[in-house]
Specification:
The structure holds two protein chains of two kinds. By secondary structure, chain A is mainly α. In chain A, about 75% of the residues lie in helices and about 0% in strands. Chain A has two domains: about 25-70; about 90-324, MetI-like (MetI-like fold), CATH 1.10.3720.10. Chain A has helices at about 15, 25-70, 85-90, 95-125, 130-145, 145-155, 165-170, 185-215, 215-225, 230-240, 245-260, 260-265, 280-290, 295-300, 305-324. Classes of the chains: A mainly alpha, B mainly alpha. Chain A: One of its GO terms (biological process) is transmembrane transport.
């Protein structure tokens, strides 16, 4: 969990061993030449990445804003100014408000569950036990599998007729008829949230593990010697000390829930009757499948303010980690 | 304290210890089952006969008829699945190569060639990582059309580095910080130029980090969904992530066993490789974050 495998043995030591009075004028000149080159090299090394990002992230971003004020469609891609018409249409559509609400509800509920379960999972994964490798492998599966594919596994798990969950409930006598997990609005909303939580808890756990590893062992041991039990150490030492990294895990969970459309697209296609539609999926259905690029862009842009807030919050949390 | 007291304390500690061990194992098994449950169910399904699968009264967790591999061979012989796998592989490899080609120098520049703008630039790159495909796919779809790459797998090669470069630069910066500066300074004293020191000394030392980034970038491209869905519609050009959920479903007919077999066949190798490099990712991310 450390740089053990990464950090090579520390230099040959000669660099440090040069006595301070040694640098001759020649050395100084050489140094300066390197410094001059560094300035150039720093740009040469960075420019290709910057260029790529500007061309394919920054420009498309402003293009998206421009599209939202235009009448661009897949059939007629010529750009004509349309003012606020797209926004007008979007606001008049109850599905948009439904999507906005769903996006927020899914994100907030998932984030809360992801943090709590991720914390529990991180503590499990950090403990010593036999067969840890296998457990870790199984636990990481939901996160490493492409979302669209793992959602297919869920689609079958929640099948209206052959769901094994229904079978168990039927055998136990809890239900008579099937639940139709994806056929009723409330259950469908619950299902989407469960899938998000399931796929992102491992990521949160991995992030939190990084934080747990960073706590000095002696702090824990000292508290333990002083008679603090497991729960007390957890709530009075571990959690306060790793608060910034817990915040980072929470925000990653939120961003990945909030911007995802694969789960909704594969699991419910926004249904039944748009009750699980989110901004991302609604923008897709409008912009790509409906061909109304302008309106789709207007819908997608509503993701941005919330995203920006989350990004700033992450950065603040990381900064606070620096200070401590 | 008398001897019996000590004995008593010791026994209590041992009992306590045993109880917490049991709790750890119990929680570990529960976590594993919760996480892998859908995959276990998928794995059972993949080998079932139709007559076994589609009978409501059958115990779904058991093989009521002998297992069959006909649906797995159907997946390979009668669907585009092999094409999807191939598309994902070559797109992933090209994107990873582009990512390293652009990302390694960028990370070096930001982590080592201390310029006044290094810090803010690193943060700006991190922000780019947070700009999601959901925000850009509509305008990028017009860019892809303009580039003449619509409905072609090459469009993904063009676009995916926007996802992988920011996160890879961030990771690589972390790995770079764990390599002492003295090493390349010494190399430069020995007569290498800055560039020579970077190529000959630093890159080889970063090899473990580079491998980790390769794995990470590859899995990111393999999981991407929305761009692939928006840009590429012919079945033969699709990667796994969109090909399996859209092209293997014919109308309302789901080839459930084949679909689940595809899920397992993709999920298990990726998770295995990821597991090998998990500790390195953690190291990279935490180092990258230390002096953002």
């Amino acid at each position: 969990m450390t740089e053990r495998s990464l950090s090579p043995p520390r230099g040959s030591g000669q660099g440090d061993a040069v006595p301070p009075q040694a640098p001759a004028p020649v050395d100084l000149r050489v140094r300066r030449r390197f410094a001059d080159r560094d300035r150039l090299l720093a740009w040469v090394f960075l420019l290709p990445s910057i260029g790529y990002i500007v061309a394919l992230v920054a420009i498309p971003f402003f293009l998206a804003i421009a599209f939202s004020f235009s009448d661009v469609t897949a059939g007629d891609p010529s750009f004509d100014w349309a003012g606020l018409r797209n926004y007008q249409n979007v606001f008049d559509d109850p599905v948009f408000w439904r999507s906005l609400r769903n996006t927020i509800v899914f994100t907030v509920v998932s984030m809360a569950l992801i943090v709590v379960l991720g914390k529990v999972l991180a503590n499990i994964l950090i403990a010593d036990f036999r067969g840890k490798w296998l457990v870790r492998f199984l636990v990481l599966l939901p996160w490493t599998t492409p979302v669209a594919l793992s959602t297919i596994a869920w689609l079958w798990l929640l099948d209206s007729v052959f769901s094994p969950i229904d079978w168990v409930l039927r055998e136990l006598g809890v239900i008579e008829a099937n639940m139709y997990w994806l056929g009723k609005p409330d259950l469908a909303i619950g299902s989407v949230i469960v899938v998000h939580v399931w796929r992102l808890v491992p990521l949160a756990a991995v992030i939190m593990m990084a934080g747990l590893v960073a706590i000095p062992k002696d702090v824990q041991e000292a508290a333990s010697v002083d008679g603090a039990g497991f729960w007390r150490r957890m709530f009075e030492i571990t959690i306060p000390l790793t608060m910034p990294i817990i915040a980072v895990a929470a925000l990653f969970g939120a961003i990945l829930t909030f911007t995802d459309m694969a789960v909704v697209y594969v699991l419910t296609r926004g249904g039944p009757t748009n009750s699980t539609q989110v901004l991302a999926s609604w923008a897709f259905f409008r912009g790509i499948e409906g061909g109304d690029v302008g309106q789709g862009a207007a819908i997608a842009l509503f993701l941005f303010p919330l995203l920006l807030a989350a990004a700033i919050a992450i950065l603040r949390a990381v900064r606070r980690m620096d200070v401590s | 304290m008398s001897r019996t007291d000590i004995e008593h304390l010791r026994r209590r500690a041992r009992r306590h210890h045993r109880a917490s061990r049991v709790a750890v194992y119990l929680l570990a098994v529960l976590a594993a089952l919760g996480a892998a449950g859908p995959f276990i169910w998928a794995g059972i399904t993949a080998f079932k006969e139709n007559r076994d699968l589609y009978r409501r009264s059958n115990n779904p967790f058991l093989f009521n008829l002998t297992p069959t591999s006909e649906h797995v061979s159907y997946l390979f012989n009668s669907t585009d699945f092999p094409t999807f796998v191939w598309n994902t592989l070559w797109v992933g490899l090209l994107v990873t190569a582009i990512t390293l080609g652009l990302g390694l120098p960028a990370a070096y520049s930001l982590a080592r060639l201390d310029r006044p703008w290094s810090g803010p630039m690193a943060i700006a790159i991190f922000f780019v990582y947070l700009v999601p495909p959901t925000l850009l796919f509509l305008s990028l779809s017009r860019v892809v059309v303009a580039a003449g790459l619509q409905d072609r797998t090459w469009s993904l090669v063009l676009v995916y580095p926007t996802i992988t470069i920011p996160v890879s630069v961030w990771l690589l910066m972390g790995f770079l910080r764990s390599i002492p500066k003295d090493i390349e300074e010494q190399a430069m004293v020995d007569g290498y130029s800055r560039l020579g020191a970077f190529v000959r000394i630093v890159v080889p030392l970063m090899f473990p980090g580079v491998v980790a980034v390769v794995v990470f970038a590859f899995t990111l491209t393999a999981s991407e969904f929305i761009y692939a869905l928006a840009f590429v519609s012919p079945s033969g050009e699709k990667p796994i992530s969109t090909g399996v959920p859209t092209a293997l479903v014919r109308g309302d007919v789901f080839f459930w066993q084949s679909l689940q077999a595809a899920t397992i066949l993709v999920a298990v190798p990726i998770a295995l490789i990821f597991n090998l490099f998990l500790e390195r990712f953690i190291a990279g991310f935490t180092h990258g974050a230390v002096k953002g």
